[in-house]
Amino acid sequence: MKLNNKMMRTKSISLRGLVIFMLIFGLFQANTNAQRVETGIDVLQKSNFEILAGKKLGIITNPTGVNQNIVSTIDLLHEAPNVEVKALYSPEHGIRGDHAAGAKVGTYTDEKTGLTVYSLYGKNKKPNAEMLKGLDALIYDIQDIGVRSYTYISTMGLAMEACQENDIELIVLDRPNPIGGLKVEGGLVEADYISFVSQFPVPYVYGLTCGELANYLNEEGLLKDGKKCKLTVIEMNGWERDMIFEETGLPWVPTSPHIPNSNTAIYYAISGILGELYTVSIGVGYTQPFELFAATWINADKLTARLNALSLPGIIFRPVHYKPYYSVSKGEMIHGVQAHFTDVKKANLSLVQFYILQELHQLYPEKNVFEMCEASHLKMFDLVCGDQKIRTEFSKNFLVKDIEDLWNNPAKDFKEKSKKYWLY
């Protein structure tokens, strides 16, 4: 009898071990299967960089320009025997990610390759003739976050103009839009509000990959004087329009210090406009950038209850209390809410911040965030929105319904118009 019990226990342990092994193997297999998206650089590498042979090249990139094994596009092309890289071009944050947000970048030498790095986030945001001298083509390989105010797409568009003016080809190595390719939100940029944070008249959340956006800008005559550049887009393999980044199976390299993971890229869309006022903390300066909304004067439980009572699709809120390490309310205990997605694809991302302002006004009518901030911050708010109308209309009653049509209708029109440029 004892022997039988021992045998049963051994058998039970073996079965448990087998189950655990199968679970682990299943998770591994699922993760392996998820590695199905190949970005432009992966596709180019598989072809042994054939289309680049014989061309003198410049590369606009940063730490996000990597293949699926996280090897830098700079290093891959610099070391390829049939590729001739002549210069590098740095957007905001630097070619290797060694510059802080907003910090000006100068011309310098890349230590690893010995190549000259020209800054596109300093005196020149657009490459000039001297910077492009002797090149046949510029390669653009940067992971974007799908939101207009993020400066990388401005860099891409200005590079397209420079290529047209200097008879140089632009080769875009395509990458996923982290928010997916179906969500389009926000108004277009009016002519008087064109800036580096709103360089082209596209919605705040534009629902295109960088390659698709490049085609749109080129074919719709949105470059300087309506002229087109010679454009080649190296398409991805395996990306589908409804994919958010975590569904691609690709590694995420932070696109900037405050976008540490792919979900943060989506959170940026719900708070980035409000953050320009610097009156309410949006988590920048704490451990959860763009996920939080807090101030010393907010009652966290009351704001949470009011926001959850709205039953906004795809998102819920919980009360939070924290001390920012820097930025808004540094060192102060502040109170507010954390946003949690229940279904990113159903959420109306960019209007969330306006619902926050709506409910704060109901609770604290004496706290007018537009009057509490500096004039320069109001200007940035308008530039990021793309015009002044949103702030003007919203601040009359602090009701989202007053701006819904202004915000949503241009996005609907753009989505239909842009479909002919979809590559996936």
Question: Layout of SSEs?
Answer:
Blueprint: H1 2-34, H2 40-46, E1 56-61, H3 73-79, E2 84-90, E3 108-109, E4 116-119, H4 129-132, E5 137-141, H5 152-165, E6 169-173, H6 210-219, E7 230-234, H7 262-275, E8 292-295, H8 300-309, E9 315-322, E10 334-341, H9 352-363, H10 369-372, H11 375-385, H12 389-397, H13 404-418
Parallel strand pairs: 1-2, 1-5, 2-4, 5-6, 6-7
Antiparallel strand pairs: 3-4, 8-10, 9-10
Helix pairs in contact: 5-6, 7-9, 8-9
Strand-pairing-aware structural class: alpha/beta
Number of helices: 13
Secondary-structure element order, as H and E? HHEHEEEHEHEHEHEHEEHHHHH
Strand content: 5-15%
Instruction: List the uncertain runs.
Output: 6-13, 17-33
Written description of the protein model:
With 424 residues, the chain is an alpha/beta fold. 35% of the residues lie in helices and 13% in strands. The model is unreliable at 6-13 and 17-33 (pLDDT under 50).
